[in-house]
Amino acid sequence: MDVPDWAAKACSSMEEPEDPYLSRSCSMTEELLMEEQLRRKLKFFFMNPCEKFRARGRKPWKLCIQILKIALVTIQLVLFGLSNEMVVTFKEENTVAFKHLFLKDYKDAREDTYAVYRQEDVYNHITFTIQRYLELRDISVGNHAYDKGTKGVSGMTVCKKFYKQGGIFPGNDTFDIDPKIKEECFTIKPMTPINDPALQEKFWNMTLDFYRLVTVEIKFKLKAINVQTIRHHELPDCYDFTVTITFDNKAHSGQIKITLDNDVGIQECREWHISGSSEKNTHYLMIFDSIIILTSIGSLSLCLRSVVKGIHLQREYVTYVQQRYSKPVPWSDQMEFVNGWYILIIVSDILSIVGSVLKMEIQAKSLTSYDVCSILLGTSTMLVWLGVIRYLGFFRKYNILILTLRAALPNVMRFCCCVAMIYLGYCFCGWIVLGPYHTKFRSLNMVSECLFSLMNGDDMYTTFSIMQQKSFLVWLFSRIYLYTFISLFIYMVLSLFIALITDTYDTIKSYQKDGFPESELHSFVSECKDLPTSGAYREYEDVSGICCCTR
Q: For the whole model, what pTM was predicted?
């Protein structure tokens, strides 16, 4: 209830009333004034930016900064994505080039089944790789060069790993194996003549006992410079390629698989000079990143200020309710003061600041953590765009999605926990039973991906058709397994999941027509009838300015 102005002025003009009745009346008047002031502060706290502007003329700085930050971080992400795309493309194209250069008769379509089956072919492939390495400068169309180590030019290392002792006699069903692995290696210097006697002696003295051979590994390092970045106003990167060619005979199945792995390292070039404006453009990009860091710091400061003020107001409200009504405040009402959108923006600002610093270090060629920087900038941009939904939620026609997600989230999480138990059960069962007979059930990760695809109606016929029929019992089990999983998850689990969302959506729509149920907090606040344009909120404007800790 409102306190009459004459009563408030009368009590404030008296120092110590002698009349006990008047003293009690003044005490009640002060309590009502404090209660009305608290209601007005709470109502102002829960206003949207437009209402706060009408109430106190407070400009929506957080909204303006968020709109500016969306434009800045999106431009930053696009520029970094184009730069990262060139890096990834350069890596992949070099890997493909190395496969065609150093693997005999390699074809792109044979990548998954590239293997040899005869002893002669193994020797021919090793000889081919060594010869191509020594002739690299004459045959490669790229700007590849041999790696120069600290003690001169490093070379190619050829190593074979084999069991220390082994005797295998399949005809007699007997074997004698010492599983200890031994390794023998020799090194070939670059630009060594092909007909060099020392090279012939090293290679031909390397006898491959295939019955106890485990792997043959050929490793060498090459260097290259990605000069295409100059056209995009970036300093070129210097690349170190560590190429490893492995002849895998671990299974001793009659098939030796050949794989080429390219481990890439990026570092700053030692000496460089670029004519024109490329270096200036690099400085402009670093200035742009600095502006983004300053903008994120400003957004972070404003959001932290709002969070701290909300916590202070929460304590004030909890203390008042406990003293006035002698009852605790529900946890749901206390969480109303902690704005989850501000937490989301704070996280995005921190990620943006760290990611921008890494990006500047990458542009200065001090770091090469493209993956870490991509994760930070990508997550930050995603959260920034999600944060804008908060401001759309202030409009009645746009907040239906936010309200539905917020109301349905607890039920959806509980439902997903129950469904996860069934899903994991099917994953373990499919892996152990169908794994030996079905390519999509070889590992737990593959099983999970296959079942998730089936749940969404994808790749059903293929999953059924490629099941091997070597064991009729397992084949029959696979049919029961797949039919029950598809029926359970598509017809029941997904239907119940959609029903949870639909029921929540219908409830929110009915609330929008008939009114939302009020909590104790909102019932307390609703008793304040002052409009934003009444001018009453200016009387209690925080005199502390920007600092939210001064009270």
A: 0.70
